[in-house]
Structure formats: C-alpha cells, structure tokens
Specification:
Blueprint: E1 4-5, H1 13-29, E2 34-40, E3 46-53, E4 65-67, H2 73-80, E5 84-86, H3 89-95, H4 97-102, E6 108-116, E7 119-128, H5 138-160, E8 172-174, H6 184-188, E9 193-198, E10 203-206, H7 208-214, H8 218-221, H9 226-229, H10 236-248, E11 252-258, E12 265-274, E13 277-284, H11 303-324, H12 329-344, E14 348-355, E15 358-365, E16 378-379, H13 385-392, E17 396-398, H14 401-407, E18 419-427, E19 430-439, H15 447-484, E20 495-502, E21 511-521, E22 524-535, H16 537-555, H17 560-574, E23 580-587, E24 593-599, E25 605-607, E26 613-615, E27 634-638, E28 644-648, H18 660-673, H19 680-693, E29 701-708
Parallel strand pairs: 3-8
Antiparallel strand pairs: 1-8, 2-3, 2-7, 3-4, 5-6, 6-7, 9-10, 9-13, 11-12, 12-13, 14-15, 14-19, 15-16, 17-18, 18-19, 20-29, 21-22, 22-23, 23-24, 24-27, 25-26, 25-28, 28-29
Helix pairs in contact: 1-5, 10-11, 11-12, 11-15, 12-15, 15-16, 16-17
Length: 711
C-alpha cells in the first residue's frame, strides 16, 4: 500500500509506509471505518495530522492542526499519556463539547498515545460506528494499545536512523482497501446519477446520468476527486453533510444548486455510506433534507438554506466554547487564529484594541513582518478601513485587493492579490477594537458568511473585553504576590543564596508559594520554602501570615522542629481552611552543618562539590494545618564548600500527565549538568528555564538555592 500526500508536502517513503500500515491496521483491528495518526510538529505544543485513511482529508482541514493544550481528545491523549475512548456522541459531547460542536454526528472514536523509550511521538486514532451505552471493550482497548506500541517502535527506529519523526506537512492520504465491483450496465439504466466514491473522496465509478449532470462523460469522472468533478458540491454549507455521512454511517440527503446563472438548477443529493465509501445519488428537483442525528427531518423547500444555517451555526458554537476558556487577550487572539481562520480559509489575522482614542496592534499573524507597524496607534479620525469599521459599527468586506484600493486610495497594501474583511469589535454597545481577516485569493462573501462573521466578531469582542479586565486584575494580583515575597536576600560572606519565583501561566489567581532566608544569629542562617494549597488572594494572604510566623519563630532561636511545629499550630488556630507544605533548614555557614525539618514538602536536592547530585531523604511530618499533634523530626546534613542545596515547590517538577518522580529526576539531571563553577544565578535560571517556557503551567513556582564558598 502506498501513502500519498493529501496536500503538497513531501514525505519519506519509509515514514509513509509506517504511517499507512499503522492507520489501516488499527482501523481493521477494532472494526473502524476511518483512522489516522497525529505527530508532533517542529512548532512547540502543536500536533499535526500526519496520515488519514477512510476520510477525505480536505473535509477535515480544520482539525489538521491541534494545540496540545486544547480540550480535544487527541490533545488530552498526548498530554496525559493515557488512552481516550469515546463510544458514542453522548460521551463525546460530555467530555469534549468543543469537538462535537464542529462534528455533531453520532460516531465512536478511540485515541491512543504513541510513545517509545520515554519519547512521545503523537497519537493513533480510529473512528468507528457509535455504540450508545456500550463502553469500549477490553479486547479493543488491547488491540489499540498494541497497534500504538508497534507504531511507537517503528517511529523510534526511523528516528534512530535519522529519519525525522516530526511532521510539518499536509497529511498523507492513505487509500482505503476497495471492495466490490463496478455498478455496470444496471446503474447506467437508472435516470438518477450514481457515483461510487471511496473514503478519500475519489470517484471510482459514475453512471451515465451522473455524467450528464456533471457535464462530463462518465468515463472521465473516474479517478477524479468528487469536489474537483462537481465543484458545486464544495460549498461550505454541504461539508457537514459529507462529514456526517463519513463519520456516522447514516444516510444524508440534501438539496444543492448547480450552475451560476440567476436560477441555478436544483439537484437532490443523497449520500449512502458503507465501510468502503459512499454511494452518491444525484437527481434533478427537490426532495426532503435529512442528516445524521436530526431530531426532525425538514420538508421540501428547506433545502440548502437550512443546511447552510445549520452549518453556519457550528462555527459560532465552536468558537464560543473555545473563547470561554481564553482568559487573556493573547489567549483570545490565539483561539481566533486556531478556530476562525481555518473555518473560512483565511491566512492573515490582525486584532487592534482601542485605548482612549487610538487603536493599538494586539495580535497579528500571516502579514509581512513589520507591515502593520505603520497602523499601530492610529487615531479614530484616520480614514482607514480598520478604524471606520469600528466608528461606524459596520463590517467592511472587500472581495479583492483592487476593491480595497479603490475604496481607500493610497492605502498601503501587503499583497496585490487577495480579499479582506474588516470587522468591528463591539461588546455590549462599547467599542473594543477591530479585527482584520485576510485571504490569499479574491473571494466573495455570501450573505450567510457575512452574518456569521459579524456574529463571531461580537463573540470575540465580548471575550476581549473580559480578557482586558482579567489582564488588569492579573497585573494587580502579580503585584500583590511580589510584595509578599522578599525583595532581597541577606548577603553573607560564607553562603550565597538565590531565589526565583514564577507565577502560574494558565490562570490569573496569585498562588501561595514562597521562599525566605533569615539570619537567626551571627552564626546561623535559616533557609525556608513553602507552598500554601490553592490559589487566589486567600492563599496569598495565608502565605504572608506563614512567612511572618516562620520568621518570628526563627528569630526567637527555636530549633527547626520547633519552628515547623509552632507554624503548624498557628495555621490551625487561624483556621483559614487551607493547608501548606514547608521545608526549613538551619545552616551553620562556618561548618556547613545543617539541621532540616520537613512538613509534606518535596525533598530537596543536593549537588556535591564533585558534581554528584542526589535527592535528599529528609524525615518529615504531615502538611501544616491538619494535625495539631503532628511532630516534625529533624535530619542532619552537611553542605561542603562548593556544594549547592536546592529547595523548590512542586510546580517546578509537576507536569500534567507525568509522574512527579519523573519531574524530580529531570530537575536533578539539570542541576547535575549545570556548569561548575558557575554563578548561582545562572544555575537558578537554568533550573527554571524549561518551566518558564511552558505556556500552560497551572501552578506557580518557587526556587531557593544556597551554596557555601570555600573557607
């Protein structure tokens, strides 16, 4: 079997064979009708569909690219390393409403992560008929796991041989094994057009009536793509009907129009799916329209208009669901890029936000570098389409760049060919900004598309208005968090200390992580790190109280056990409804001898002067704020000259879907590999670098390093 690119991107023969074998094998193993493989791309956090079988890739272009932090089953399987099994539409819509908003058809699907040797490559998926109320059985789960394991081993071998396993091309279309023969003379006698279309959307047979309706001899239709041979079936309003037939296995009928004259001829289209593909019927005249899962079937006359309304509805629903999860203006803009552009075939996007009487560029993609800088900060009296769409409240559509240049003489253009849509962003009657959508080729904007785009602009404006409030509140929250942390650490001749704090990147609420260094006397230094459970102002307030309490107990000359036990009792007396972890180390800078007490906190790391790095095994008690009678045993340790002690909170080592021990070991390896000797600040930056790059970090992070200098 030979895999062929669904788009223009090349693919190595070896990779193509591996992906084709895996996709078809998995589909056959679990009785599916379609399947495919997603692989990591060269873009961090982006999965791309690398192979697809049993489905025309062109119909599923919006799902070719999946961000790993999005609420889709493919992304969850990759993030968590766990299989996702969706036996029916009810289960799917409950767990992944955003997926079902765009694919509202009854089908089952299975997603299995693909990995080998600790390396994650992607996800293997299979689509099959829904089994309402019947979960995926153990045998099918095992078969999917075995298929994914085989693929993982194959990809690991390719990687070892130097064949890249990242994917940055269009997906490979893997031909579906054909079944059955020609319809022959029997079909030619029918007055109804009949087409046999495989699961890649390629016509295998056409009868004489189909040839007449297409305006092309039937023999010339074979081997052509359906939408190439019958371009009038390629209207976006009909795409959901084809998706529904391929995914659900249920028949679909709808009315289409062929021809471009003032009164194009009506054609009733029937789609009758089977495991090997579709039988498409074409009949002049109108008839009832129905689709998979419909509660009622529309009567004659509803036709393409009803189909168009239904299709148009899915785009606002999918975008609205995605926007509810976006909290910052940047996240809103990213969602619009991922959801809106693919839906309409756009290539460029720019979002401007209103500040007083000027528009400032907040987001752009697809435009030449620096082109939009000249429009940044324009006032509301400028004669520009991005300004006038906001001041007038009317969207502006230009079907070609010539139309745009004619309407706004002298306006700089980024391209000679294309189309543009300028949308006002207005939320609850208040102007927020404007949005520009760009297309690489001239195109018309139907009445339905203009209505949908205008509605989507309202959703985007509401989300941006909420995000701007969020950004303002987040800035205040970050300021509060910074005020509660030490502004500087004590400077001593024998011990160097460095602290780092990173707020969580996936939410606005401040956290309860903290660190501190306290000079408890001329020959004692206390190193402290803690983490209050939860987020928000309450967690930060509790953190501030605990930090003050630890300092007070430490400055009173108490032992580590007494400090931690006293802080535990104080937290119980305060009764804030929260608990906290803590690690307290009392160090003698002269000798390097230290005594530590731990309350439910991650074990520290110690890198010795010779580079050997270990996870310490400190005795400990329960977290603070739970048991008034808890004890906190002490552990002695030695910090020799040149050694580095690392105290940290769990946000530095916890990654969703991975075991925390893996994160601790990864941190230990980074600390062991840090250059020696090196400034402690560089070591601290290196330890937090990976976490700082994660866009979806759910927790905040505190890190405290201490190192003794030579005597």
């Amino acid at each position: 079997m030979t895999a062929r690119p669904d788009g223009d991107g090349p693919a190595s023969d070896a990779a193509g064979r591996v992906l084709a074998r895996a996709a078809v094998g998995a589909v056959r193993a679990v009785g599916g009708c379609a399947g495919g493989v997603y692989l990591r791309s060269d873009t961090e956090g982006l999965l791309r569909m690398a192979a697809v079988t049993g489905l025309p890739g062109v119909l599923f272009r919006p799902w070719w690219r999946i961000q790993v932090n999005r609420p889709y089953p493919v992304a969850e399987a990759f993030r968590s390393g766990q299989a996702v099994h969706l036996p029916d539409g009810e289960t799917a819509v409950r767990r992944f409403p955003q997926l079902m908003a765009g694919l509202p058809f009854p089908f089952g699907s299975l997603y299995e992560p693909v990995a080998a040797g600790g390396r994650r490559f992607g996800v293997l998926l299979v689509v099959r008929p829904a089994t309402p109320g019947v979960p995926v059985d153990a045998d099918d789960r095992r078969r999917m796991r075995e298929a994914a394991d085989r693929l993982g081993r194959d990809l690991a071998e390719l990687a070892a041989a130097g064949d890249p396993v990242h994917w940055d091309r269009d997906p490979l279309g893997v031909p579906w094994p054909q079944a059955g023969g020609s319809a022959g003379e029997a079909a030619d006698r029918l007055p109804v057009g009949v087409l046999s279309v495989d699961r890649q959307g390629v016509i295998g047979f056409a009868n004489a009536a189909a040839g007449e309706l297409s305006g092309m001899p039937a023999a010339r239709l074979a081997g052509r793509g359906l939408w190439e041979a019958l371009p009038w079936l390629g209207h976006p309003a009909f795409e959901d009907h084809f998706r529904g037939a391929y995914l659900s296995g249920e028949a679909v009928c709808f009315e289409a129009r062929r021809g471009k004259d003032a009164d194009p001829a009506a054609v009733s289209v029937g789609l009758y799916p089977a495991p090997s593909g579709l039988t498409v019927t074409l009949e002049a005249g109108g008839r009832p329209v129905y689709a998979p899962g419909a509660a009622a079937r529309a009567g004659p006359g509803s036709g393409a208009a009803a189909a168009s309304r239904a299709s148009a509805l899915y785009r606002p629903v999918a975008l609205a669901i995605a926007l509810t999860e976006a909290m910052t203006a940047r996240q809103v803009s990213a969602v619009v890029t991922e959801e809106l552009l693919p839906a309409f075939g756009g290539r460029q996007l720019a979002i401007y936000l209103l500040d007083e009487r000027h528009l400032y560029l907040a987001w752009e993609t697809g435009f030449p570098r620096g082109f939009l800088d000249r429009f940044d900060g324009v006032s509301l009296d400028a004669r520009l389409p991005g300004v006038e769409t906001l001041t007038s409240g009317r969207p502006l559509f230009f079907e070609s760049m010539q139309h745009l240049a004619s309407a706004y003489p002298g306006i700089p253009l980024d391209a000679d060919v294309g189309a543009r849509a300028f949308l006002p962003l207005i939320a609850s009657g208040r102007p927020v900004g404007s949005c520009i959508l760009g297309f690489d080729a001239p195109r018309g904007f139907s009445r339905e598309e203009r209505t949908v785009l205008t509605a989507l602009a309202g959703l985007i404006a509401q989300a941006l208005a909420r995000a701007r409030r969020y950004d303002s509140e987040a800035a205040l929250a970050r300021g509060l968090q910074a005020a509660l942390l030490p502004h500087r650490l004590p400077v001593t001749g024998r011990v160097a200390t460095v602290g780092r704090y990173l707020p969580g990147s996936a939410g606005m609420d401040v956290g309860g992580d903290w660190y501190d260094v306290v000079e408890t006397g001329p020959d004692r230094l206390a190193l402290v790190i803690g983490d209050v459970q939860g987020h928000g102002v309450a967690a930060a307030a509790t953190m501030g109280q605990l930090r003050s309490a630890v300092r007070a107990f430490a400055l009173s000359g108490n032992s580590p056990e007494q400090v931690v036990r006293g802080t535990n009792q104080l937290l119980i007396d305060l009764d804030p409804g929260q608990f906290a972890s803590c690690c307290y180390v009392l160090l003698d800078p002269a000798s390097g001898r230290a005594v530590a007490a731990r309350a439910g906190h991650p074990q520290p790391l110690l890198r010795h002067a010779d580079g050997r790095t270990e996870v310490l095994d400190l005795a400990g008690g329960v977290v603070l704020g739970v048991d008034p009678g808890a004890s906190y045993p002490e552990t002695e340790l030695l910090l020799e000259p040149g050694a580095v002690l690392a105290l940290y909170t769990d946000g530095l080592v916890e990654v969703p879907g991975a075991d925390i021990d893996e994160g601790v070991e990864r941190l230990r390896s980074v600390l062991a590999a840090a250059a020696r000797p090196a400034p402690l600040t560089e070591t601290a930056d290196r330890l937090v670098a990976e976490a700082d790059e994660r866009a979806d970090r759910p927790d905040d992070i505190a890190l405290l390093l201490a190192s003794r200098a030579d005597a």
